[in-house]
Every structure is written in C-alpha cells, then in structure tokens.
Amino acid sequence: MPTLPDSTLSLAERDHAVLWHPYTQMQTAPLPIPIVRGEGSWLIAEDGTRYLDGISSWWVNLHGHAHPHIAARVSEQLRTLEHVLFAGFTHPTAVELAEQLLALLPASQARVFYSDNGSTAVEVALKMVLQYFHNQGQPERRTFLCFRDSYHGDTFGAMAVSSRGAFTQPFWPLLFDVEFLEVPVPGREAEVLAQLDALLTRPDVAGFIFEPLVLGTAGMVMYEPAVLSEMLRRCHHHGVLAISDEVMTGFGRTGPLFASSLLTEQPDMMCFSKGLTGGTLAMGLTTCAAPIYEAFLSQDKMRALFHGHSYTANPVACAAALASLELTRADECTRQRQQMEAAHAAFRQETEGQPGIRAVRHRGTILAVEYDPGEGTSYFSRLRDAFYQLALDHHVVLRPLGNVVYLLPPYCTTPAELELLYAVLRRMRALVLDFTPAANLPEILHD
User: Fold this and answer.
1) 38 annotated as a binding-site residue
2) Where does substrate bind (predicted)?
C-alpha cells in the first residue's frame, strides 16, 4: 500500500522528503518557506507570517496574487472548456488572445504560435529561423548572434543562445555554437556595432536573439533603444532575422507595454511568457512577421513547422492571459506603473554615488542596485546569501543576483510597501560597508 504522509511533519518537512527544487543544492539548502496563500503583493506562510513579494515570484505576477478578476475568468473558463488539442482544432480564447495581442504589438508581428513557457517560446523562435532558411534553400545559415551575458532559458536551444557559465557547463559539448556580442551598455555602443558589422559579413549568420534593453539574470544590465535599433537595422540589411525575447520585459515592465515599442527598427519575432497570464498559469507564445510564416506555406507537408506541446493554447491559460491583459491596459495599471517608476527614480537619485554602491540601474518598474563589496561583481558573490536572509528577516522576498539586488514588484504594490523594499536595500548597503572579502558573512548578519 502507498505510504501516507506523516501528519506530524510540517509542510516544509514533507516537501523535503519528496521534492527537488530548481537552482537549489538540496543537500545544504534550508527547508523551503511554505506559502499557503497570496493576497495582493503579499505571500502568507503556513505559520501566518506575511512576506512582501518584491520580485513578483520570479517576474511573473503583474497585478497581485489571487487577483479576483483573473480568478473569475479562469473559473468561468474551467466550467466551459478546460482543454482541446490545438492541431486541427481551435477555440475562442486562443483566437481572441492572438487578435488582441497582435493589435498591441509592433506592426511587424502578424502570427501567434502558442507554447507553454519562456524557454519553449525561445525554442520555437530558434526553430522558425533555422527552418525559414532551410525552406528558402539556404540551410548553411544556422549561426545565431547573442549577447555574452544573456539568458534565454534552460532547454537546450535556449541554453545554446545564453551565456556560457557554471549553470550550463555540464552541457557545453551538446550546445550548438553561437557568436557572442558584448552588451552595448552606454559608452560601448561603437565597439559593439563594429563587432556586429564584422560578424554580419559571414554567410552563415541566421539570427540575432536579444533581451531588449534589460538583461535580467546578468544583473539587470541595461542599454539604450537607439543602439539596439541600429543593430536590428544592420541585421536586416544582411537578411539576418531578429528575435526579441520579451519573456521578462513584456507587459509593461520597462514602461511601455513592450520594450520593443521603444525601437525604431522592429524585430522579426517576439517571445513571451511570465507576465503573459499575470502569473496565474504557465503559458508561452512566439509571434512572427508575415514573411516568416509564409516561408512555411507549401503543398509539401515537409515544409510545415513540426513543433507542438500537449497544452498548446490551453483555453484556461488563454482566459487568464486575456483577463490579465484587460487589467494591464486599464488606466489604473498605467497609473500604478508610472507611480512605481517615479518612486524607483527617486530612490536611484538618493542612492547613486553612496559608499558601498557600485551602480544603480532603473528602467520602468525595474530597479537594480549593484553593491560594491570590494571585489568583483559575481552571481556567486558571498554577499548573496546574507542579502537573501536579511530580506527574509524583514519579511521581504528578494532573490539577489550575487551582489546585485533588484526590485521587480507587482504593479499593485503601494507606496508604503515600496518604502519597505527600499528600506531593506538601505540595510543591505549598511551590511556591505561592514563587509570585507575575508569576513564571515553569517556572523556579520547575526551581528
């Protein structure tokens, strides 16, 4: 007979007995915090402790946890149609979501292909590019360009076009080769454009994939729309297709609804997930320009795009996305984003140049503080765990990228809640000022 869970164990202990968590060394990690309820910008633990979600639970939540409008639409859809295969069939929410998105996206986008997360949205785009050139009789065009510090997901194609690092090292022999460009941060634009020009002379270059304006896991590294627009213009001059990975930046994170809206030269493809459903259900999609779609049309079935997922265009996920999009387009959400952007700007002005601060970066609702511990910036900075615990001690959920700590809260986060987040960032600066590279961080934190 199956073993029943031990009723004397806590939820965290039961978790530890049966689960394997992402990005976690399970032998040394503390027990996870058991969250049983969400309410606006807050997460409520099993023991009643409330935690302010400063990172939208991995950048997915736009409007607050357990939002009643999204919940009502999901409930209604569950009582109507929970799922239907999307090969040879369709349904209203898939059509409506595609129609509404295409009306909002840059005019270059003409078709929607559904998947189920950010990595698969990227995989779809990569396969579209490669098969586009194959169908055009140019199979030699199979090299991708990407930024050196980029991150596009954890499936194999997405890993291949992401930065090579400790997370992907075991898989390096299995990843296809790409050409890495430096990130065109202010002051390096001319250097990166020259590097791009040299690569575009090669006949095998097929596509350029990028995180528009903000490289998330790189430490919220930011660059300007003008240089990216110029990069896309030069790619298009050489027939190279451009993929904008808006999995993190989409749906208002950078100010406008889409970061690509700030560009004067538009991408050929765009990838979405995370905020697509307001953090309610897993979903991804890839959009593309008409010429890309048309390259797959033929009497020859072998020219079709042979890619799909069991939950492609799931009706319930589509309903959640439609409800979230309705909230995102409302005047109230626009005001919320503007207020958060102004608050971040004021904190940046207060903080820049202070001892212990290497840089402060801000765009839209995204704020990142790069602390200066007297050593290089690194995802594996020993400050990371101290920062993480300090935030939890103040009932705040953050996920530091080494010595870079970012805020990316739900749009409904109030000014008072934002001030709590800023207060934690100020406490982190105090921690840094006490830090020396040889220090014992747990003792510093305890003190």
Assistant:
1) no
2) 58, 151, 274, 308, 399
pLDDT averaged over every residue in the chain = 95
Count of CB atoms situated within 10 Å of the CB of 227: 19
Q: How far is CA 320 from the centre of its chain?
A: 18
Q: Annotation-wise, does 379 bind a ligand?
A: no
Look up residue 60 and give its two tokens: 């997915």
Q: What is the pLDDT of residue 381?
A: 84
Q: What are phi and psi of 367, to 5 degrees?
A: -130, 135
Tell me the C-alpha distance between 195 and 72, whole Å. Answer: 51
Active-site residue identified among 151, 371, 411, 422: 151
125-146 pLDDT, tens digit per residue, is 999 999 999 999 999 999 999 9
CA distance 78 to 92: 13
399 is in an annotated binding site: yes
Q: Is 395 annotated as a binding residue?
A: no
H or E segment at 243? strand 241-245
Which domains, and CATH codes, for the chain? 33-66+331-434 (3.90.1150.10), 69-329 (3.40.640.10)
Determine whether 223 is an active site residue.
no
The H or E element spanning position 409 is: none
151 catalytic per annotation: yes
pLDDT 10s digits, 332-348: 999 999 999 999 999 99
Q: Note the pLDDT tens digit of each residue in 385-431.
A: 999 999 999 999 999 999 999 999 999 999 999 999 999 999 999 99
Active-site residue identified among 116, 245, 268, 372: 245
Q: What is the mean pLDDT of residues 277-306?
A: 97
Segment 21-47, tens digit of pLDDT: 999 999 999 999 999 999 999 999 999
Is 58 annotated to bind a ligand? Reply is yes
Active-site residue identified among 223, 274, 311, 422: 274
The closest of 285, 277, 361, 367 to 63, measured between CA atoms, is 277
* Bridging pattern class, strands 35-39 and 42-45: antiparallel
pLDDT at 235: 98
* Choice between 436 and 8, residue whose per-residue pLDDT is larger: 8
> CB count, 10 Å around CB of 337?
21
